[in-house]
Design goal:
With 151 residues, this protein is an alpha/beta fold. Helix content is 35%, strand content 22%. Strands 1, 2, 3, 4, 5 and 6 form a 6-stranded parallel β-sheet that branches. Strand 1, helix 1 and strand 2 form a beta-alpha-beta unit. The termini are close together.
């Protein structure tokens, strides 16, 4: 079983809902799971002893990261810690009406974790608010295959 940190970037609460739902799903399956919404640094995430991070983030404004995840992003970008022992997945929430910035925050975090050496498991899930009003349902379906790929 995996010990999964769910790193949530949220403005309106949809990503938080997805993160909380997945934490419940993962723990019911016997995995360790915890949601983080207020970390200020990578050290605050407590990655020691964890092997997997699931990034769940919305995009807001003109393709911006949610305010609560900016400190972790900035710390990762400035210090580029070695995350080569970490596997990760990404669930990005967006609105395809904004085609130039659709799910941009998830793409940014995906690229940053990869640049720090972490190994992405599976494809990034991009959830469109226009076609999927219940993002937690789509995330739960995606997570079943993602968990299987973790091994």
């Amino acid at each position: 079983m995996s010990n999964i940190l769910i790193l949530v970037g949220t403005e309106s609460g949809n990503a938080q809902m997805v993160g909380d739902t997945l934490m419940d799903e993962f723990t019911a399956l016997g995995h360790g799971a915890e949601v983080s919404t207020d970390a200020q640094t990578v050290a605050d995430l407590g990655l020691d002893g964890r092997d997997v991070v699931l990034i769940v983030t919305s995009t807001h404004g003109l393709g911006e990261l949610p305010d609560n995840i900016i400190p972790v992003h900035d710390d990762l970008a400035a210090n580029r810690p070695d995350l080569s022992g970490l596997r990760y997945g990404v669930i990005a929430l967006g609105d395809q009406t904004y085609s130039d910035t659709f799910c941009k925050a998830g793409k940014i975090m995906d690229g940053l974790f990869a640049a720090c050496g972490a190994q992405r498991v599976g494809e990034r899930l991009e959830i469109d608010a226009c076609t999927q009003p219940l993002p937690d349902e789509e995330a739960v379906m995606w997570s079943k295959e993602w968990l299987a790929q973790l091994g």
